[in-house]
Amino acid sequence: MPDHHHKDNGATKNGTNMDTIKSELESSEIDPCIESKPKVSMRFHEKVLADLQERTQLNRHQIIIGLAVVSLAVALLIVVIGLSIAWPRLPHMLGYPLCKTSQCLRAASQLQDNINASISPCNDLWGSICTKYAKTPMLRPPNKPVWNLKQLIIQKELERIRTEISTLELPVHIGTVEWKLKHFYEACLDVDTIALDRERPLTNIISELGGWYILRDWNDVDFDGMKVLNNLHVRYGVSPYFRVHVEPNPHVANSYSIRISPSGLGLPDRAYYYLENDDRIIVSYMDYIRDVVISLSSTKNEAGKFAKDIFNYEKRLAEINPERVQLQNPIKTYNAISLSELKQTTSTQIPFYDILQAMFPDVTITENSEVIVTDLEYLSQVAQIISSTDRHTMNGYLIWCLVRQYLPYLSENYTAALHSFNNELFGVSKREKRWETCTKLVRKHMALAIEARLETVYPISEKTGKILNDTFVTILRVVKEKVGKFDNSVLLTQHLESKLKSLTFHLGLPQSTRTSQFIKDHYNALKIVRMNLFEGIKSILTLQRRIEEKLLQNTMPEGVFLKELFHEEPQVRYLPSKNTIVVPRSLLVDPYFEVGYPRPVLYGRLGVEIAEAILSAILPYDSLWTSNRKILSPFHMTVNESLNSMRESVECLMHKKINKEAALLALKHLLAVRVAYESMNVASSMEGHMHFGGLERYEEDEVYFITHAQTQCAQQSKQYEFLENVLYFRVSSKSMLDLTWRNIKEFPEAFSCSVANRKSCV
């Protein structure tokens, strides 16, 4: 059958049965391994579960829950690690104690008041840290030549003195110190009575001295120049040609000697006389002389000629005056000589013996008495000028010296010319207020009485004493370590170490001077007349003479302390004649110091001053004094070694366009900044690191340098800057701050500023 036959053929190919072939192929393609694969290729997690079931004997559900828990734990661990990496770190300041006391906050407020956080100190140090002084053109009062932190302290101190005098309990018994204090102050304030007296108090003295040719009441024939010179020194405390004063004897410890020094110039220093003739200060000075003479009833033409004559005569004296630089070395200015030898050396009729005997009647003075002369060459030359001066010129000069000294105590009609000259000399536009003038006058001449009362009202507490003494000890230890490492000769090192070992530290008045009896005896010679300022001023001279006599008689060992504590500008000072450091009370009150102020503030202010005073003991020129409170012999090897020890650093600073003496003073300050900084770090390591409320973002070293920098912030007139440089070798405040920034690398480093390629001189 065809259909059936065809079907069979379809299942056969080339005589082969296709079903058979297919069956054989399927059979032959099955690998034993492949056959077991379906069992092995079961899902991985199922196999894991099976293994876990077999090992743990747990059922499937329990194992799934366990795995889920483990996975969640791993995920959480990863999250925690990630958060710990990304989480903000704890602020550094929160890792240490934070001072939030009222004292810390007050100190912080003082500093913040002068900081401009938007300005980087790396780019503009003055604008960043002294922002008030940089931004406020007239921050300086118009009656002040300079305004800074120290001037603020002085101003507050004057206000305290005024308050203390004004609130003295009444009635005040006549003749008591309190009575003298109050009526001396009130006599100064009583401008109406002063105006009524006009020029009479001064012209009466001129008449006693034989008259003044410019006032046409002088007789050439009767004029005795040496007699007038004697009376001016003895009776009126005026010092033409030379000055007589009492100072510690540099060769006999704890004793005093009479010293004779150059004097007699109307301008602050010989350097002023070398200014151009048309310089405003020179013109103003001659106008001042002219106007004063006119106010005393002279014609304008005569007064103008007199002014020129006086200026030219003073210029002759200025030419022989030693430069101030020469007066720095105590060895060179120590020239002990007997009065008889002095007379022979100067070959003059200057009555030194008569003057000294009359000035100090209770002190035994003979021709063989020894005095100290600052500059023998000057006295010899001034003697020649005196001998060659005609009687007319000498009368004019001697009486002018008297007028110049007593003029400030006359009425406004006579002092107007003086104020005008001072405006030009100091760069001020207004005179100070009358109460300020009178308070300064009382403080100058009755300083002990004032200070004793203020120490009662504002006592130096035991805690203050401990803080300051600990600060002194820490700084002294750092200085001693530096001296031990310094590359000096054995002799110089021993000399310096001996001074540091015996160095003492003193706060405020000596205890013995605060007693009522001491103060009463001290002012016993002072006679104050009610509503008569001029007589009070004359009596002040008598008081000063009696004090100097006590010093010469060695009955007042506290004398040198009293002198150094009563400077107008308060400062920590080193006294070489006592080898001690004194800190005036006015620096131990707000705003300069308060118990509880942050450590960097303490070290940035008083710490630097204490360090500078300690360094003064071992750096030129006070290093020339020994620990036994005597000066070295000029032939002692230590003298040259001491002077040479600072030569390299001084010469380095001189390249900054400042003179040698200014460089030496600046070097001492720079070293003090570094020593105080290192001492603060020592104290911090012992007491622990801290941060301070209101200054949280600043580290201790930043607060230290900000504090110190702000003690240098100032506004000062150009005239005052010139005067400070000429008289005291001080560079301007801004220049000093710049020197500190450039030479103390820790300063810019504290603010993360670059110090690369910067040469330091210290």
Automatic annotation (TrEMBL):
Recorded topology in the membrane: Single-pass type II membrane protein
InterPro entries the UniProt entry points to: MetalloPept_cat_dom_sf (IPR024079), Peptidase_M13 (IPR000718), Peptidase_M13_C (IPR018497), Peptidase_M13_dom_2 (IPR042089), Peptidase_M13_N (IPR008753)
Pfam families the record matches: Peptidase_M13, Peptidase_M13_N
UniProt keyword annotations, A-Z: Hydrolase, Membrane, Metal-binding, Metalloprotease, Protease, Transmembrane, Transmembrane helix, Zinc
Source species, domain of life: Eukaryota
Transmembrane feature ranges: 63-87
First-listed, main subcellular location of the protein, grouped into a coarse class: membrane
An MF annotation (GO) of this entry: metallopeptidase activity
GO cellular component: plasma membrane
Peptidase M13 C-terminal domain sequence ranges: 574-755
All copies of domain Peptidase M13 N-terminal, residue ranges: 121-452
Entry's Gene Ontology BP terms: proteolysis
Subcellular location: Cell membrane
Cofactors demanded by this protein: Zn(2+)
Similarity field: Belongs to the peptidase M13 family.
PANTHER family attached to this UniProt entry: PROTEIN GONE EARLY, ZINC METALLOPROTEASE FAMILY M13 NEPRILYSIN-RELATED
The protein's name in its UniProt record: Uncharacterized protein
Organism: Hypothenemus hampei
